[in-house]
Specification:
heterodimer; A: about 325 residues; two-stranded antiparallel ribbon; two-stranded antiparallel sheet; globular; B: about 525 residues; alpha/beta; six-stranded mixed beta sheet; about 25% strand
Chain lengths: ~325, ~525
């Protein structure tokens, strides 16, 4: 019984229960959900959101918010397409450059919301608009197709029969988790989000920690952008529009608190999977897009609610078991 | 109550020799403390009635009972001989009680005029707020105080002194027969204080009564007609001021029954580790010099707002030092942030441990190791195993419940939270520790443990700058004490050569010991 109530108190419990509920629903609703081919599809679909959510989690942990990753993704897909297709740069060089571009985008967000003392919501609301505007500017509004034949294998390739994006996600989340749990900088990010004033008085470089979170967020958005370019072999200023809010949703479903200081990589991954499974399940059932949006909204509220109420649920459980 | 609102400002109807307000035997308890015990006081129209006592003696609680903020458990409050019961500050307001609180109640983002009429805007015939009337009324009130403040100024842009004056103007603009002023001059300069004194005289000439709470005895003797002194929640004196000398007041506030035994150990060594030479900040620290020896507890004694905390902030790199210098172990240092101070071996136990000290998203061990994470590094990574070992060690050493190993420190008592923060600096191996009110709001047992930690720290050669409003504690636990007032150090002496009432006398501006004897 102790174990049951401890499980309910742990941080991954709420998100995991939400995920299992959603997954059970999906597998009961359509037998196609659990087929290997579909699960492999889910792992492709989840890859971009999951990678972008790494950065979103870091920023949310510091108590900030990043609305711009969707636009960074769009700018990255367009830039990569132009660098490789129009300017003929080798693909690795192009990828390296757009990753740097992502870092720069994140740096701008971080710089203005820390040293510039503008709330991160405002800064990233502005850059959300600016980065997408830049994407329209450099492409003159037209998508660029068939970027490079070398791109598709990056996304559709397989290793030991498992799609490559699965490995990307696992590796990046392992690194993210290691960074958060086992480095001085990762700990500083939790401290800043938990109590900024105490962090400052304890000698933590508050602004530098926040800036780092935004820079990593820019980088993961850029990696997400590269994945998307490879997936669709194209770049478009219209790509990634939903990614900003979905990455926040993944972190929040994973139990991250928007006040800062609470959340983890694993929990966010569970959150991202939940988002992906909801979409995949509804796709399989041929539910119209309008209902998909509505369902996603309900899942966000239900998952966060479960997390908020979990201590009372845990208490109710232990009471129940003590009585019987 | 309805019969009162009809003639609520009817001060003139009350004969001058009968009390306007009477407090009869009221008691009020908070969890863990009896804040007031059977306290009575009479307030006559046209008098300034000073309410005195040490920090925590119950002055503010008594004022808040009269203002309807707190409801006493026993006793009653009478208005012109009739018992009244206030369930809410608005009830007291309707009965003619206006209060100027220590904590500002202004809305920083609104203008002066909007603040003064907040919640009671006059309406015009169309039912909209009558802004010309608001401005006109505000201008009149400001003129009464001879204040040159624009009614359309945003409150946030005003200086602290000006905000305090607006706060006073707001209270005066309410139709009232009793004004409660809780430390109204704490943020004021000499000139503004003088203006306030004149205004108080004008108000009493209109037969309004004033309850004046202040730490500054010089002011009290200048303005008050009668004095009520509280000690540990009980009334110890209530006299016309003409019958009292300053020495009597100080003695009554302090009492002679305090014979607590502080476990003070002396570990002062000869070497000086910190030298502060003539520092000045924009925050009011004015030409402050002192030095601290290795293993010494150096006390900063002063009233709220005296500048003691500001001195600590300057040393810790929180406020910019505009003149003077600081030497650490003989070498000049300039700290632009607490980060640089911490790196140089200076630590701070902040006054407000919840807002500035604890990380509630962390369990005990993470709260302790945060000050020196380097210690946990194995290669580039933190060893969580090592962290847990250190956590266990320090929790045990500080006698903090082991539940803190796995649960957030928010579930610990205030005393245990404070010990977690002390453990943090113990772990950080800071050489100089600034402690701002380290025992505020914690129980006796935890206080004793904090004292033992102070001894342990000084024994290992750590120096402590101790700030405390608890003067007996400050005198007992410090090796030397500096008296701070108006951002200056007035006097530095061995703490055993200073008595509590000398300290209060100097800190409150009553004068040196010879003058009050």
């Amino acid at each position: 019984m102790e174990r049951v109530s401890r499980f309910f108190r742990s941080t991954v419990a709420g998100p995991l229960v939400a995920f299992l509920v959603v997954a059970t629903f999906a597998s009961l609703a359509t037998p196609r959900f659990l087929q290997p081919q579909n699960l492999s599809n889910v792992s492709l679909q989840v890859a971009t959101v999951a990678v972008v959510s790494i950065g979103a989690t870091l920023v949310i942990l510091t108590g900030g918010i990043d609305l711009s990753p969707g636009s960074t993704v769009a700018l990255v897909t367009c830039t990569l397409a132009i660098l490789v297709k129009n300017m003929g740069l080798p693909l690795p060089v192009g990828i390296l450059l757009v990753l740097l571009l992502g870092v720069a985008c994140g740096f701008v967000n971080g710089f203005f919301s820390t040293y510039g003392r503008i709330p991160s919501f405002i800064v990233t609301l502005a850059t959300m608009s600016i980065y997408r505007g830049l994407a329209f500017l450099i492409t003159k509004g037209t998508p660029i197709f068939s970027v490079s034949p070398a791109l598709e294998p990056l996304f559709y390739g397989k290793l030991l029969g498992i799609p490559l994006p699965f490995y990307y996600v696992v590796i990046l989340y392992a690194l993210g988790s290691l960074f958060l749990r086992n480095t001085v900088q990762g700990r500083a990010i939790y401290a800043v989000g938990g109590n900024e004033s105490a962090a400052r008085l304890t000698g933590i470089a508050v602004n530098r920690s926040k800036l780092l979170a935004f820079v990593v967020a820019g980088l993961t958005a850029a990696i997400g952008g590269v994945l998307l370019t490879a997936w669709l072999n194209s770049g478009s200023p219209n790509y990634g529009a939903e990614l900003g809010l979905q990455s926040i949703a993944a972190a929040v479903i994973g139990g991250a608190s928007l006040v800062g200081g609470y959340g983890s990589m694993i929990a966010t991954l569970v959150g991202a999977l939940t988002v992906a499974v909801v979409q995949n399940g509804l796709n399989l059932l041929a539910v119209p897009a309008s209902w998909q949006e509505i369902t996603l909204g309900i899942v966000i509220v239900a998952a966060v609610g479960l997390d908020m109420w979990k201590s009372s649920i845990g208490r109710a459980f232990s009471k129940l078991f003590r009585q019987t | 109550m309805s019969d009162m609102t009809a003639d609520r400002v009817g001060v003139l109807e009350t004969p001058l020799n009968e009390p306007l307000w009477q407090v009869r035997g009221i008691s009020k308890a908070f969890p863990g403390v009896q804040a007031l015990e059977d306290v009575s006081m009479d307030i006559y129209p046209g008098e300034v009635h000073a309410l005195l006592g040490e920090n925590g003696s119950g002055k503010s609680t008594l004022a808040k009972c009269i203002a309807g903020v707190h409801q006493p458990e026993k006793g009653e409050i009478l208005f012109r001989g009739r018992p009244v019961r206030f369930h809410h500050p608005m009830d007291a307001r309707a009965a003619g009680v206006a209060t100027i609180y220590q904590e500002f109640s202004l809305v920083p983002s609104l203008t002066v005029a909007e603040n003064i009429y907040l919640g009671r805007y006059p309406r015009n015939s169309a039912g909209m707020i009558d802004w010309p009337a608001v401005r006109k009324g505000t201008r009149q009130v400001l003129e009464q105080l001879s204040l040159a403040i624009d009614p359309d100024e945003i409150v946030r842009t005003l200086s602290v002194a000006e905000q305090q004056l607006v706060e006073i103007a707001k209270a005066i603009s309410l139709e009232s027969n009793l004004l409660i002023m809780d430390e109204p001059t704490a943020a004021l300069g000499l000139l503004e204080t003088q203006r306030l004194m004149e205004l108080i005289r004008r108000l009493t000439a209109q037969n309004k009564a004033i309850i004046y709470i202040s730490h500054r005895l010089d002011e009290v003797f200048q303005i008050a007609d009668r004095v009520t002194i509280l000690k540990d929640g009980r009334r110890v004196a209530s006299e016309p001021i003409s019958k009292l000398k300053m020495g009597d007041v100080v003695r009554a506030m302090v009492g002679f029954d305090i014979q607590q035994h502080y476990p003070k150990e002396r570990h002062v060594r000869d070497e000086v580790c910190l030298e502060v030479q003539g520092i000045r900040t924009e925050n009011g620290v004015n030409d402050v010099s002192f030095s601290v020896r290795v293993g010494e507890v150096f006390g900063l004694g002063g009233m709220l707002g005296s500048g003691r905390t500001e001195i600590a902030r300057a040393i810790y790199g929180l406020d910019k030092i505009v003149a003077g210098k600081i030497l650490l172990n003989g070498r000049q240092v300039v700290f632009n942030s607490p980060r640089e101070a911490v790196a140089a071996g200076v630590g701070m136990v902040p006054e407000n441990r919840k807002a500035d000290g604890c990380f509630f998203n962390f369990e005990g061990p993470k709260n302790i190791t945060i000050s020196r994470l380097k210690e946990l590094l194995q290669g580039p990574f933190l060893s969580l195993l090592k962290e847990r070992e250190f956590g266990e060690l320090y929790l045990k050493r500080m006698n903090i419940p082991a539940t803190a190993l796995e649960r957030s420190v928010q579930y610990l008592s205030g005393g245990n939270q404070q010990k977690v923060i002390l453990a943090r600096w113990l772990f950080s191996q800071a050489r100089i520790l600034i402690m701002d009110e380290p025992t505020q709001g914690i129980d006796i047992g935890a206080k004793l443990e904090v004292y033992h930690v102070i001894n342990e720290l000084t024994a290992s050669g750590i120096s402590i700058i101790l700030i405390s409003s608890d003067f007996p504690e400050l005198l007992a636990m410090s090796d030397r004490v500096a008296v701070v007032r108006d951002g200056k150090i007035l006097h530095i002496t061995q703490s055993e050569q200073m008595t509590e009432y000398q300290l209060i006398g100097m800190a409150s501006g009553a004068g040196t010991s010879d003058e009050i004897e």
